[in-house]
Amino acid sequence: MAILEILKYPAPVLSKVAAPVKNVNGKTVQLVSDMLETMYAAPGVGLAAPQVGASQRVIVLDVDHENPGKLVYKLINPVITRAEGEVIWEEGCLSVVDFTADVKRAAQVQVSAIDENEKEIKIDAEGLLAVALQHEIDHLDGKLFIDRISRLKRDLYARRRKKMLRSGTEPPKESARVMI
């Protein structure tokens, strides 16, 4: 297992649609394992393969802060098959440093995927799990949560981020909040 580098906006891979996994092999299983270790170290509640530079449709999630590792989702080729209702959720992202925003999402979702043993999984989710699933699947589609906010807020963030990159300064690591 290894802790991988989490790519930050505006890394090009974050805006590309990830390729479906055609067959699950040892490399896929290793990627899932490394992504989990990276997610916990960040700390985060979800991580998508493009965030670590792998343009594959793979995500990992663990939204139970009190019992890490108890209910872990390792999803390959996840697809939202049903979405209902509406919720506004304050989101942050491991790839979008020093910024959070309210994002409109479906309140309940159903997701189908396979796991690392190629077993089919169906998840009915609401609350943080539903939001995290949508957030991570967005990553697989080349979208960040900032693509779902107003153009003004997005442009302000983009300018601030470019200024950070030019000056070589990074904000202090978030320690109090767990990011999606």
Structure description:
The chain is an alpha+beta fold and 180 residues long. 26% of the residues lie in helices and 28% in strands. The protein has a single domain, classed as Peptide deformylase (Peptide Deformylase), CATH 3.90.45. The protein contains 3 helices and 7 strands, in the order αβββββββαα. The protein is globular, with a radius of gyration of 16 Å. The model has no long low-confidence stretch (mean pLDDT 94).
Using brief descriptors, characterize the structure shown.
single chain, 180 residues, alpha+beta, Peptide Deformylase, 3 helices, 26% helix, 28% strand, globular
Oligomer: single chain
Total count of domains: 1
Rg = 16 Å
What is the spatial order of strands in the main beta sheet? 1-2-3-6-7
Spatial gap, N to C terminus: 21 Å
Q: CATH homologous superfamily? A: Peptide deformylase
SSE order and pairing:
Blueprint: H1 26-41, E1 46-48, E2 58-61, E3 73-84, E4 87-93, E5 96-105, E6 108-114, E7 120-126, H2 127-140, H3 151-167
Antiparallel strand pairs: 1-2, 2-3, 3-6, 4-5, 6-7
Question: Can you summarize this structure?
Answer:
26% of the residues lie in helices and 28% in strands.
